[in-house]
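Hello again,

I reread your note about wanting to compare the complex against the isolated chains. To keep things tidy I'm splitting this into two emails, and this first one only covers the full assembly. Below are the input lines as submitted, including protein chains and any nucleic acid or small-molecule components. They are followed by the predicted structure of everything together. The single-chain runs will come separately.
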Amino acid sequence: MDLQLASFGDLEKISTIEKETNEYPWTPNNFKSSLDAGNSSIVLKDNKNILGYAFFSVIGTDSHLLNITVSKNYQGKGYGKKILKKVLFQSKVLGASIVFLEVRVSNHKAINFYEKFGFKRDAIRYNYYDGNPKEDALLMSKQGL
Amino acid sequence: MFDTKSSFILSKLGIQRFQSQINNSNSEVIFGVLWGDILTLLDKSFNELEENELKLLIKILKSIVEDGSEYPFSKEINNLSEIKKKPKLIISFTSLKPNLIKKYSPLIESKPLSVLENSLEDKKTLWSKIKEHKNGSSAG
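Full-complex prediction:
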């Protein structure tokens, strides 16, 4: 099992996992655009099998976690922690001193997960997520990587 | 009822939705956010902050609070009368200040976040004011 950078060749599998796992999934185009834009990415692979992934963007001293997902079949095994740990490390290596993220306010499981990693609740962005009804986003950040 | 955004848009059009009440300026409408005992005054509603402006605001707050301690969760304030306890510090990122705001000193005045974001000079000025405040607080 190892952590690698995501490549365009991974996007089909990533998109399938995304669709199976997230209620509001990124589209294949979202992933492609993210790579095109030069955002950083990490894929956790077991042989050729993708277990999870993360996309994040580092600009100056700010890192922004855009997407982190573990495939449904592999959840609860600590892979999310492994991926997030790597995101924090890579962000630091790339010069970031703070990592931001947004999460749906209803996603208590994710909020709890981020808090265990030392992310603090900063603010609410109202009606941030599309949908019916729209949902608020909780902005969290972790300083001192 | 008009929400904050509508008020903001109307104000941009030069239409004042809310009248200042001279005898009771506690009822003046503000774009404020309370972070525990720190009040930040903005030039637009909190929800209208661009992502980068919001991040900058959070970083500024993190630089003020004691190392290792947390600031409480944000609470939007649209009227001074909503403030139940005197803030320990006000940071104003707007030139539009309610009449009574000075009674809530100490007050740190700054350029709006949108300006600050792209101006190292203005950031430095703000940082020196924050440093001065922190030194003053720890001395007192």
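For quick reference: Confidence is low (pLDDT under 50) at residues 1-25 of chain B.

B.
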